[in-house]
Amino acid sequence: MRELKYEDIVDAIKKMIIHTAYNLPEDALKAMKEAYEKEKSPVSKEVLKQLLENAKIASSEDRPLCQDTGLAVFFVKVGEDLKVVGGSLKDAINEGTAKGYEEGYLRASTCECFSRANLKDKIGYNLPAIIHFDLVPGDKLEIEYAAKGGGSENVSRARVLPPAAGKEGVIKFVKEVISDAGGNPCPPLTVGVGIGGTFEKAAISSKHALFREIGSVNEDPEMAKLEETIKNELNKLGIGSMGMGGSETVLAVHIEANPCHIASLPVSVNVQCHSSRHTHITI
Where exactly are the structural domains of the chain? Predict the structure, then answer.
């Protein structure tokens, strides 16, 4: 049984949050540069140029990429032969999140649902973190993290389609979501699509799909083809960077598909803005 110290997890979480807030990951940066080269609209091309300059300034001056530093979302794989000593894993992730947001001078965005009172002084800076745990073989701790902003989260949707809707129904639904969103989620976008499972499984899958490396190819050839089809359809919408009109509305479409009930076809669309702040560490 491998032991991992509570304080080491706290420190790792804090550092990954601060680094991710200031530095656009290489996959997102590469995709943005490619979009700049391909963009046909002069206006959207100029917007992309400014977004790339923003990323450069943020990294060089240790400043947040966006004023909306998001809610902290984690997907955590816990090895069955791993033991956290000195405290619980969940508490370590939350403490690391609070320290990362406070020490990194990042905006505290969690609040009570209706009073809208900020919770930073009640339960901690930008807490609680959104954590999805999975128990796996081995003695490692794998942590995927993303800062999820409100603008992109607000346009996300889930629906249970009839099985007869098939692929065409999925494509139609994704187009509807992105078309209705327009420039609100700050494109160019990464679009996560969860298919199958149950209502909540599809929603979680669409969120996790956003963590995949932009530009990577789906391991399932059928899903890879569907991703490319949907991406092409979405870029035909002409929304463009920050909604200014153009050919590069979407950087990537990532699908996670699951087996589902014979009587249903759940589909969820989760959207990430151009500032796709995500990272992955293994301890």
Answer: 2-20+65-148, 151-276
